[in-house]
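dude i think i finally got it to work??
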Amino acid sequence: MNTKKKHIAFVIGALSPGGAERVITNLSNSLVKDFKVTIITFIESDPFYALNDSVNVVSCFKELKNPKSFLGSLKLNYSILKRVSKITKEEKIDLLIGFITQANIKAVLAAKFNRIPCLISERNDPLKNDIPKFWVILRKYIYPKANCLIVQTEKVKQVYERMIKAKEMVVLPNPISTELSKLREDYSTNREKVILSVGTFNNDKRQERIISAFHELQLNNWKLLLIGEGPNESKLKALIEELNISDKVKTLPKIRNVHDYYNKASIFAFASKAEGFPNVLLEAMHFGLPSLSTDCNYGPSELITNGVNGFLAPVNDQAIFVDYLQKLVDSEELRLSFSKESQKTTEKFLDTHVTSSWRNLILKHLS
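look at this
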């Protein structure tokens, strides 16, 4: 490469805790060796994950108020778009990369205004029906104007191929950061009897299913730990109280040292009804945690082969979920076997492999 590095920029709402934010952080930390890297956020926020000092973060606004009407929403989004476009021009950015629907649409438009290429990355279940209609319509017309649409799984690609006439569509899975990978310890027999679950407390993640399964099994010497925060937090705490299991079930807010808990727990449980690609399940398996997940669209079935390196329960079959959890609790031999197989499965997701694919894709669109 020539001495002057090309300047690329990611576009996202904020650098808060979350799967997409972790991926952007991992990619930025790796790609900064080859490119000048900026992250454009809509609002100012301290990066939740450790970010290389060479990565530049520029925010459109200090904070944003929630609009009270559709017109207010239009004005707000237009002002964010103008700022993203202005930052792109001022920073002399050569290529934009959007992450998640709203940021993708703004990135495509800002790239058009500045006559530069744009890659967009879709992270959610494409058939989720809680995306406002306005954005669904915009997605249909604006995504094809991007140079490339990046998705996380083959199944998601098939859905988008039916929905959107993309110029180019590429499957690139989430990378596991080398830094995180270095922190894993052997899955040994002296683990704490803890069932761990990590994820936002919302209707998609359905932690109440895990709490109910734990209660049903009446596990005397086991504990359940739920890490996360979100709109369902008080509901989940009320359920724990109601079932009278507060001594055994604990919740923790999102934390930076989640690896400490991957290294301590004995089992990982995941009960989502919808996913784009479950980062936390990938991380838990990489740390060798024997995992039980619902077989929701999209992601878990790309990671778990049922009965080989984990368990996959049908999304709405609570009885099978409970049965699988019982099997994991009962058999140390099964847990050790799943642990070994899980680690093998996740090697291909290490950021050295994934980042080189991103690098090649970026270079292709910069040439």
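The domain at 179-348 is CATH 3.40.50.2000 (Rossmann fold).
im so relieved honestly
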